[in-house]
Amino acid sequence: MKQIIFTEKAPAAIGPYSQAVLAGNTLYVSGQIALELATSGDIKAEAKKIMENIGHILAAAGMDYTNIVKSSIFLKSMDDFVAINEVYGAYFPSDPPARETVQVARLPKDVNVEISVIAVN
């Protein structure tokens, strides 16, 4: 059985997908972007907004960042790796989740970064 998770505190999906799906005790959060900040050139601001959006979605499912077990980061440029780590790391002061970070040719709406997570309650 699955439950669709939605919060108005995070951007609505821009396609035929849900913000997140809760299946049993596992939450699958769709990739989040910071569309409103994508052209600002401030990768740290984008990453912070994305992490805040993820936090709102986690809260809607009764979870928080400590429940995240896996994350995926997709970057437009690997040159932003250090800056992303600085912002991302602040949300996981200890026991960070498993993660991969990859550079991709293009992201939705031409943003610079997208992050998805899996959390377990």
Automatic annotation (TrEMBL):
Molecular functions per Gene Ontology: deaminase activity
UniProt cross-references to InterPro entries, sorted A to Z: RidA, RutC-like_sf, YjgF/YER057c/UK114
Any one cellular-component term (Gene Ontology): cytosol
Family: Belongs to the RutC family.
Cross-referenced NCBIfam families: Rid family detoxifying hydrolase (TIGR00004)
Full protein name: RidA family protein
Lineage of producing organism: Bacteria, Pseudomonadati, Bacteroidota, Cytophagia, Cytophagales
